[in-house]
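FORM 7B - TANDEM STRUCTURE REPORT

SECTION 1: FIRST PROTEIN
SEQUENCE AND TOKENS:
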Amino acid sequence: MLRLSKTINKHRANIRGLSILKTKTSNDTNFEVGQVVEGFIVKEVRPVTDFQLTALRLEHQKSGADYLHIDRNDTNNVFSVAFRTTPNQSNGLPHILEHTTLCGSKKFPCRDPFFKMLNRSMANFMNAMTAPDYTFYPFCTENQSDYYNLMSVYLDAVFNPMLRESDFRQEGWRLEHKDVDDKSSPIEIKGVVYNEMKGVYSDNQQIYNEHFLNYILPSNTYGINSGGDPNVIPSLTHSDLVAFHHRYYHPSNSRFYSYGNFNLENHLRFLNDTFLKDCSADLSIKDETKVPNEKRWATSKRAHVACREDPMVPKDKQSSLSIGTLWSDITNTQETFELAILSRLLLNGPNAKFYKSLIEPNIGTDFSAATGFTDQTRDTFFAVGLQGLNKSDFERVESIYEDTIKSVIKEGFDNRDIDNILHSVELSMRHQTSNFGLQLLYGTLPIWNHDGNILDSMCVSEKIDEFKKKISNKPNYLQSLVDKYLLNNNHKLVMTMSPENNFEELRKENEEKLLKEKLAPLSNADKENIYQQGLELRRQQDAIQDVTCLPSLSINDLKKTTDSVPLIRENINNTPVFIFPQPTNQVTYFRSLINTSHLSDDLKTLIPLFCNVVTRMGTKSMDFRQFDQLVRKSTGGLQVSQSIIDSPRNLFNMKESVILNSHCLDKNVDEMFDLWKQIFTQVTFEDENRFKTLIQEEASSLANSISGSGHMYAMLCATAGINPIDAQRETYGGLQYISTMKKIAQIDDLKPIMKKLEKISEIILNKNTMKCSLTIVDNNSTAVKGLESFLNTISGNWDLSNEYNKIDKQDDNVKCFHHVLPFSVNYCAKALPGVHYAHKDFAPLKVLCKYMSSKYLLPTVREKNGAYGSGASLSMSGSIQMFSYRDPKPIETFEAFDDACNWVNNKKITIEELNEAKLAIFQGIDHPVAPMSKGNALFFNDMDQQIRQEHRNQIMNVKIDDLLNVANLYFSNTNFAKALIGPANNSINSGTNWNVTNHEDL
């Protein structure tokens, strides 16, 4: 399960102004304040016109439980239950409890009903998450029967969990022999959360963020690690866990949330009758868990954090520095909204004050990890700094910080930048997504958790009007906020981080010391008990579970046909145009696909870099700052990305493309296409300093991404060994590309690369290989005329005989790759050749992968071996992939991968299990699609309704024998590839088939 990020990334939008699905509310708006409904009293009813919803606050009369319902005509309904959980130690108690509650309950006593419900539901989202001061359990589904099935499982899990000691040992931590069956093998510390947090502590950015939070808010619960410090987790006892649950998972400490168009009264009746009607209130719990405001400091403080060396970053550029100040109380929603705007003015984009002063001089590689406005804690805080620093530049950065603040107070902000931010809020309020209910929960829960007025927080227009009034009455209002919260704020933290040569050795020493301390007092009887407990846990993990207690949808609950998407095909200026009429809420969406297969290989390797910088370099008529200001004024941004698209009908056929993507309010269509015209006709690659800045940012971002997405990089590395298309993807987006960017970032003279990017623009920024798409309301002729004007302006003539090009199959040699990186856990992957999307075996292979994920890999690799995650999938490129995430036992994991075919043959698959796997597949197929994305499958992937319907029918018709046949045909293939990302491993590194890359040598 996920832990919430404690800081807001500089690219992340403010959730309280996020995208919506603007529709009419449903029928739950006739409740009145003071009315009692199914044991709940209505406390407040408020229409929120910004989002076309009605919010209702209720309170359960007997227990005091809090309830927020969002009445909105959205079919993707959401439910969540949350508890304020404020730990006082770094033993990971709330985090481990979150895991353990989902391991079985009184009504559903089978092991891990949460994971089993993943295959018995049509939920498009299921999870449980631990934040620094609360834990919550959300899900989303469009099916009403499914909704109540999941409610019953979730609520029984949190209110009536089994909390067995064996589950605590599996999910939290335990002492166990390395080989469970061998009493003579060494005893180790194991556990899912224990290994998860070891993985977290392998990431320098996570270490930095965690410590910054601990140091700037040290007095209360934020001063410890709610997820758990691996050195402290083994101090937690099962009795501590049970006592914490008994006290804090109480209805009086609960916050219930529902969203969508299902009937509220039914929700309340179900909740009251099943769980709450016999509960009594204990109001002391809320007082006990309440987080007070941090006492403001009289003087600023400093802190230093050690980290591991990062072989993907130059050795003299591995330090970070951040300066943070404590800001508003999160419950002051107006001030928090205004401070979020101030943060964006200071940080976002090339016109932002700190971007100019800190990023553009190229002192470091990018903003530091803790940079941003954090509004997830009781007291919000703001931080800014740099990573990729030399320690000798620390003082310089601090000096620049002070000078920047003073200049802001003196000069103020450009009104155009303020207007652009407000425009982005308006656009985001109209921009439609399929998960608005979930995003609204994320945005309101931190305020709600601290008893703030959550209904006020949703009224964005009122906050904008109030903000405009303030800056109108007091032109220097924003400067006064800078003076108050930045210049004259004694609650200031300056934190630095630098690598230590022996960091990993010290970590291992501490781990070994901890283990010795645990083993030292053990008697022979204690050790025998550890051995027996290990055997017993294994027996429980291997036991066949009776899942008949769990509710489930059936295949008959699924729709039989694929949804059709209205389409108008046009040919404008000899260019293919797809027009998708949709209810876009006065927003126009433009996409374009430009084929790049005709580029030379040396230019193709630079396409990802080209995409990253082409809209951020400026044009011949305006510099990058001026251009960025126009982009923010009129659009939601101009995005350019590279994509390699597989043919759904032919293996090893791919479409190499660059994708253009933008959206704007309907009234700004002409301005949006004018911006694209400038990119196509005037883009320039002449500002070397700007180019260097963008390269440093990209290289730094890529290097930081490995530990959090190691399984994705491992899968790509493995599939590259067996599939020529994935080999291309690895070159353009895998570890190979990260190494390439690392080298480019260290080049002094970048002019030759800039010349190549200019050459790419000359070749592809035209109509020669372009096709376009518009998603608009039915009668929006302005958007079509705007696109026509754009196409009339740019050069070229459509000349593309075939979008796809065939690539030669690779040899059948076994390939195994180990990328040695200084992590304390591993990421494993194995790849096997599969088939293309339209092949008759694609559907049974897809079902088999889903079946193996839940019935084999999850219990074997996660539950027994302690990895945080594991699974199998089938990619559109025709590659079968098995993977593990934050894995302490790579040898055992690869053995499990290799034994997959034998396991299937020895497993008696039931009809019920087959249908569960199919349901899990249809979760992905039938997930809600926002209007802006409808038609993407056709436009990008050439998947029309017929081929999607055929695929649907094939999945429906998969039989048990089909799974056995494809298992023996494909999973027994001796042509495979493996990849491992993680620390040096003597057992693997000594293997003759393994190619070892030590990234310290790159």
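SECTION 2: SECOND PROTEIN
SEQUENCE AND TOKENS:
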Amino acid sequence: MQHNIFTTMRSLKMMEGCKGTQVYALNQSIDGGGGGGGGGGGVGEKFLQNLLSKNSIRSRSNSNFQAVQSKDEVNSVVLAEAFASYGLPKTDQLEPQIEFCLKPMNFVETLADVYRRMEGCAQFDKSRMYLEQCAIFRGLPDPKLFRRCLMSARLHAVDVHSKVVLSAWLRFERREDELIGVSAMDCCGRSMECPGSALVAGYNPESATDPCMCDRGMRKDEDTEIYMDEECSTSLSRGDEEDEDFDMSFCIGDDEIRCRRFNIASLSRPFEAMLYGSFIDSRREKINFSKNEISAKGMKAAEMFSRTKSVDSFDPDIVLELLSLANKFCCDGMKSVCDAYLASLVFDMDTAMLLFEYGLEGNAYLLVAACLQVFLRELPNSMHNPNVSRLFCSSEGKDRLAYIGHASFLLYYFLSQSAMEDDLKSNTTVMLLERMGECASEGWQKQLAFHQLGCVMLERKEYKDAQKWFEAAVEAGHVYSLVGIARSKYKRGHMYKAYKLMNSLVSDYTPSGWMYQERSMYCQGKEKTMDLSTATELDPTLSYPYKYRAVSMAEENRLGRAISEINMILGFKISPDCLELRAWFLIVLEDYEGALRDVRALLTLNPRYMMFHGKLQGAHLVEILSHNVQPCSQADCWMQLYDRWSSVDDIGSLAVVHHMLANDPGKSLLRFRQSLLLLRLNSHKAAMRSLREARNQATSEHERLVYEGWILYDTGYREEAIAKAEESISIQRSFEAFFLKAYVLSETSPDSESSLYVIQLLEEALRCPSDGLRKGQALSNLASVYVDVDKLDNAIDCYTNALNIKHTRAHQGLARVYHLKDQRKLAYDEMTKLIEKAKYNASAYEKRSEYCDREMAKSDLGMATKLDPLRTYPYRYRAAVLMDDHKETEAIAELTKAISFKPDLQVLHLRAAFHDSMGDLTSAIRDCEAALCLDSSHADTLELYQKVQQRAKEQLPT
């Protein structure tokens, strides 16, 4: 019946009525344009007014009981009609996303090739190689791989330009611009990101990890300004002048500047030729210098520099004169000193804007680098300055930067990534990508620049230009860009050509899920269904096939099946588009509480998300739906959060926290809790945003330090994170500070002595006030460390206490302890309890498989893979069983299946070991190299790699 109501109302243009000042009757037929139209905010507000108005009228005209009943009825009908006007999503409106990153046809081969070239390249070339690795890792779901490569690139950088760009990029990855009270040029204490260290040329990767020793405390205060008209401070006392043995003068206007001929001649070869060569000036005691565009004060400064070799006592305008003089007379030493001095003055945007043009005109490499550093560390805001934007975006600006040595692919790669995040479709993004393409010299650089240009043009609906850039990327060697060509042809009305192109791709290369997914766009009926099924089989992480199948079921009035289909991918891969789709279906079924849950979770991932084809702001939909569910207080929300947390319902927990933050937006603890949930859901970007907001909203210094410590830990700076925790503890002992220090130490130093110290820290944490959710986590962590030091009874006590406060995940730890005590039945039972309690229980099935016989284990692992295909242990286990049964080919195929959509280190290592045992040394070496590209310090893979290489050498003919 609900679906019939929905489809009946679909033809009504009810929302058009809501746009006017009059509230139209719900059953009134309205002529006019499209049903969804209008801006998202206006539509939502008018609809909400309509909803409240109807409820108010009905409530005033009936008894209390009848009013409540009528309110529910009105809300249901109004919502059904309202969302009917948007229309259910249709299959022909769905499209898979074209990835913006480099996507090699054979990812493992590419990783292996990069590792080989990395090992064989010169030390000075390693930074460039790590940048290429960054581009490859950008498309992987784990952002830590990208950040680690970025840190390695900075570690091995040689020139100032590369150091400036990479340091700024590392800072940008943490989005420190969003931290209140943090200046762009603040030094965070790490040499790799220190603005002062970046301006020092030279190759020294060992010192780059040292604590920064910069003199940031001696920098000019933020209130300091540079005035170009200040009185020059270069005047000398008469006594000082008399002490000098001056033997010549420079005359500028009416001023005479006494100098020593030898000192001035030592400044450069041109001065030496002028004063000691065959020129007339060499025989004059007084030389007219009025036409050389330097003031008397400037020449006095030049004379003083010729004696002291310093410009520290001069005002900036005088140093700029000296820089101009140095350029004109080739005074390299003076130019270098002036350049370094002026660069040291650049500490904010205003100063950078003031001195940047002088740096370009004066060919001052360090000064331009210092100004460039400010612009980059202020991204994305600095690109909103028209002068900065014009410099980077225009060909003329790029040429000016190139002349002084500050235009590079690296620079424009960073700028374009920032621009795409800020506004994908903007002209700024297009121009920066064009400059990036112009700076590209290597094949992978051209592939990336041209492919991203194609993607942006496709988003801008400039299909002819998109096709041109995709074709350029293919010509440069990026085969994946054929997808872009096919999509561009399709958008231009050439569906059959697009199909032929994708069909040839499937035929010519090893099939991948994305190939079948794209080809499905250009066919119909059973062929489309088969392609989508094959796409899911080859790569179960692709969301488009699930979405298409779900919408198809909804079109056939099978909404329950549609929700089940979309639940399959939401069980292991949370994304805003899939949450929106499920919310849409739930609204049709009038399950407004479930829909509200999904929209709240969606807005946690993307606060600016626009619902229903971009026509309604998500926040407005929350407001509308909230009037159709039971209101709850903050105390009720806490109870709900405990329930969701204990049932391992992360999406439900996210929704509750979002609701709590709406009631108490300044609660930093809730923001922190939100970040932990997001990390568990592999939503790293959203998690870091929540963590930054928690830090900004912290009401005390010790709390702020904890959140800063977590930010540092999550971006790879463990020692700095520990230092923040210790500083917080020195101010006030708190649960979170002790927990942070213990957590980081447990991963940094796994030895027994450190484990005992971690136990002390966690015990201290548990003595501090905290809520049950966090204490449950601490108890579980403490129990885990007790297991590591073989104190199993203590571990059981901790896990039991955690379970008593509804920390359901403690079942898994308790099962591990029972297993270690050789009580497999109890271990199995504990995991069964977890499976029964947990909403998302793929990990529970995986873990339970360790405590049962082979057949039951295979069943549990099959269920784990079905629920979460991203978990790699089931593939490794099944492959090992196949190897034991001497089914080597099937074992390799099982691992290859997982590697095709998730190139995991452990899976690659195992496949390398299998290849080695089968005597396929070439494949074993390839897999080892690919694994080491992901983690060059992995000890087991290094050992296997060396062993296989040695065997391969022994087999070579002598």
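SECTION 3: OBSERVATIONS ON SECOND PROTEIN
Residues 454 and 466 are 4 Å apart (CA to CA).
The longest strand covers residues 248-252.

SECTION 4: SIGNATURE
Preparer initials: ____
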